[in-house]
Batch of 3 targets.
Target 1
Amino acid sequence: GSAGCASARPTPTPTAKVRGWGGSAFRALCTRDKLLAAYGQRRVRLSTANTYSYRKVDVPFQEYVEQLLKPQDPTALGSDTLYFFGDNNFTEWGPLFQQYVPPPFRIPGTSGAYSFGIGGSGSGVPFHWHGPGYSEVIFGRKRWFLYPPDKTPHFHPNETTLAWLQRTYPTLPPAERPLECTLRPGEILYFPDRWWHATLNLDTSVFISTFLG
């Protein structure tokens, strides 16, 4: 089946599929209790939720989950919003990543690098682009907005995705609206090289991305 991200544009285009690739064993390790038991005292690196992710802050994982993992303030700037996505210590998080079953999709000549994250309701990353990869939701729901490389979206780099959705999105003519879809647990989205994309967690969400490089 499809998670609803479709396009009439020439390939490559974002593709969303329903399939629990990550596996039930990996999902079981990603519950709040299991993650806190395994990583609560480990320090994690948070990034500001703006386009260029300038600032990094290291905090104990338990502090992030218990104090910072809360619904997004619509008035907060991206530079004032801290978010745990990527920047994983691969030695510390290796035992978890070893349990992940990635989708059997490959681009010849590339290898995958995992990026694991947890975000509160209303959090996310504003429009940015990078190389190709795919992202799977383990818990929660994540809404994606995508534009092809030649169609730069209208956004302010220090505006959160939630603020963009509330202020800019409703004013866009139909021809200027992004491709969009919502991923639920076990659903995965492939994002092609250099496609603009922004994300919005509709619930507290746990997710893992695989960057192909």
Target 2
Amino acid sequence: LVAVVRGTKAEDVIRVLEKIDLSKRKTVKEITLDLSSSMMIIARTVFPKALITSDRFHVQKLYYDALDDMRIAYRWMARDRENEEMKEAKAKNETYKPFRYSNGDTRKQLLARAKFILTKHKSKWTESQRLRAEIIFENYPELKKAYDLAMELTDIYNAKSIKDAARLKLAKWFNEV
């Protein structure tokens, strides 16, 4: 059963889909959706017997967004710390020289340049990204933990495995979280 319905407002879409005979709608076994609450309401209302599956790409976007939120929070802390160090240097009538990591990045630069590293599998990092990642993870262990969990989940999604094996891997991953 396939239907294309204009709009995303739950009551409008439900009204259109309910024109399909209920016996046909009950034969729908599974629906894959994004994480929108209105789509969830539509699916549960119109297809009462269907198993609802969240689209993996929307799930991945959620955990990458959470990882990026962590990075941004650390970046704000780094900015505040550098601002405080600048004030202290000014009060002492000294020239401010920001702290630099072994790769030449300041604290703020390190975290600004980490955005794409944190959404990329380490097997796809360039040498400079690998070095930057080592510095990030050494100084921000919570980012490393979150990155590792994100990559484990990505690996589960990418693995070609039978359903029961994938469920077991997902359950083990969930226990780590």
Target 3
Amino acid sequence: VLEPALGIFGVAVNVANIVIFARIGLNESINVSFCALSVTDLLFLVCSGVINLFIAMGTYIPQAMVWVNMHALSGYLTWYRHILFDTSTCIHTYIAVARCCCVAMPLKFKNVFTVRRALVVFFIFLSANFASHMPLLLSHGLTWVYNPKLNITQLNTWFYDEWTFYRRINDIANRTIFPIVALLISIICAAILTRELIRASKRREQMTRSSTPYALTRSA
């Protein structure tokens, strides 16, 4: 019960975010970045909802009544959900790096993170995630299979012998190494950003204190 409610809430929030950023204007890199993040998160949630629906149908509807193996179909779509999730992770990391660079070294990176470059980077993220999952996607698929137990032909999954090997590689690279690296980059960027903001706050305090005696002297 909780998972569908959270999914619906997430869809509503991301749709609202997309509308808000579209109304604000997509002429700045940061707005485009957050809008793209909302789009990928929205697609991820929709895909997750469809997968959960198929799982529920496969659990509660007798298989003899349907022509599709719902559990197999949900498992096939799971990899596309992973692609969307990994793309969202890449965009989140990009936002962290961009904010860190613009705050820590604003003069050097002022004109680096443009709207056009952000769109190109996001397209590269999506393409790279598809490419990294391509061996796994091409080593299995959907086909019509006769089920002798139910005496019906159902849409089911087929697998090449190499599928298990590709899945192990995918689990190591995409499910273990990649999220750890992305998390470490985000933590480092957050630490640098926090340090620079603290330094900027201290500099403003010093400037305020140094200008206060002069203001008091003029008023006297």
